[in-house]
Request: fold
Amino acid sequence: MKMEGVNFQPYYRVSRWKKAHYIKQHLGINAKPLFSELPFLSIGNTQIFHGPDFRVPVGGRFKKVVTVHDLVVFQDFYDSPSGEKARNNFRKLVQHCQPDHYITVSNFIKNELEHLFPETKGKVSVTYSGIDHLQVIERKGSEVPLFIYIGTIEERKNLLALSKAFEAVWEIYPEAKLILAGGKGLGAEHILEEVSNCRANKAITYEGFITNERRAELLSLATGFVYPSLYEGFGLPILEAMLAGCPVITANSGACAEISHNMAWEVEVTNPEGIAKAMLSLIEQSSLASEKAAKAKTYSQEFTWERCAKETLSVYEKVLGNK
Reply:
């Protein structure tokens, strides 16, 4: 959206010049190349450089704002050489690039950032992302209990706990189904192997990466969307399911609890029994589930890109000393 008094110019790293046309398709304006070794020549008289993905240039007379989506690289899930490289890059961002202000996508990440890097205190604002670009979905429901997970297949998503929880549900409702969908991430092969060895394996399907059309279909059919993630920066899939009118089960802590805001079945996700109990509630108390999902749908519609843009503009004004 256009903001009065704001001249917006997107940039892309030279290494990604082949994909620059996608930016124009998305934003409707041309993007310019950013030469990382000579950013000042690229940026010109810009007042604020906003890095929406963890990066801003070193030095410069312009103000610098950076968005921090999560700090997952500082978690145990990323105890690897690639994780250490990512951690060092983030330390460089804070200590050498020295942003004037940070935007985080949740209070959970704001608190984590200020804890890990005390020098950022007083320079962090929270701006929730929007979801009003998502497709409106008509609920259809399923003839059998159907639970879905949509997201990356990786360790922090806690899918082994989900498979154990589903086993308990399947033992009571042998017609129940669980569909896992999403691309493969860190530890995916081990996770999928363990899932394939569980007692309910014939009732569990892994569909891999799915299209937007298939995503919409699953959300329209599912008895519940189960998102037992151990760590999130925001939790977009939670809101996407809510907007579709699909009941949600997620964590009772971290960004998941912050974003779901008591509009989901919030459980201790390290406990498969708790997840299973919530899944059974969606089956056995369908009227209550539908009522709560309807309230969650209304709540999810508060997350708009217009609100995000206005809050981001407020950060710019603060950085420039106009507020």
